[in-house]
Specification:
InterPro entries: RNaseH_sf, Transposase-MT_Hybrid, Transposase_1. The chain is an alpha+beta fold and about 220 residues long. The chain has helices spanning about 5-15, 35-45, 55-60, 65-75, 90-110, 200-220, and strands at about 115-120, 125-130, 135-145, 175-185, 185-190. The N and C termini lie far apart (about 75 Å).
């Protein structure tokens, strides 16, 4: 409410007005927010979820303010962006992930946690046996030149200190692909692909052989065979 409206209402109350409701006035009543227009707007949105308010206004010839009122307040719609996902998985991939997750969950429930002593003070903490036997891996791009971020270059200054400047530097266009395997205690294997190589089935079979050797060397007793 603007200050002009506030002063106007104060003047009305001083003159003896006690009601907060608008008084009856002449003019055409607002008929755009009726049930028929609400149904029409709802049908348009269901046909095209990306339709814009201005398009609804042009197609149905309903005032923009009424379109907004119907869409947001009466129908309860709100426009949101789609959620980005790393990959589009097939039904078979989804089924495999569900099965593996169920197996791991069952093992986690069966093996449970155990309490171990940590530190000379006799402190205790819970340790999950399953998590200590899991090794996971992923691929990532490594830039040969990663510039310092603006947050990393922050310094303490007094109000009278001169303003520091930092030139914007782009990441290096030269990058390499790295395959990393790790567990709960840290990294086990890091392999940098040579230029021109691609991550395929043959590459992964070779890396799994290297991983087996690295696990036996860095995590003795983790492998049963």
């Amino acid at each position: 409410m603007s200050m002009t409206q506030v002063y106007q209402w104060c003047s009305w109350f001083k003159d003896g007005r006690t009601s907060l409701q608008d008084e009856p006035r002449c003019g055409r009543p607002n008929t755009a927010n009726n049930d028929w227009n609400t149904v029409r707007v709802d049908e348009l949105i269901k046909v095209d979820r990306r339709v814009k308010l201005v398009e609804i206004f042009l197609k149905l010839e309903i005032p923009k303010t009424n379109v907004y009122e119907i869409v947001h307040n009466k129908l309860g719609y709100r426009k949101v962006s789609a959620t980005w996902v790393p990959k589009m998985l097939s039904d078979e991939h989804k089924r495999q992930r569900v099965e593996i997750s169920q197996i791991l969950l069952h093992r986690c429930q069966q093996e449970g946690d155990e309490t171990v002593d940590v530190g000379p003070g006799g402190d205790h903490r819970a340790r999950n046996k399953l998590l200590e036997h899991l090794v996971t891996g992923d691929e990532t791009w490594l830039h040969l030149n990663t510039p310092e971020t603006k947050r990393d270059s922050m310094t303490w200054k007094h109000p009278s200190s001169p303003v520091t400047k930092k030139f914007k530097v782009q990441q290096s266009a030269t990058k390499v692909m790295a395959i990393v395997f790790w567990d709960s205690r840290g990294m086990i294997l890091l392999h940098i692909l040579t230029k021109g190589d691609s991550v395929n089935a043959d590459q992964y079979c070779e890396k799994l052989d290297r991983l087996r050797y690295a696990v036996r060397r860095k995590r003795p007793g983790l492998l049963r065979s």
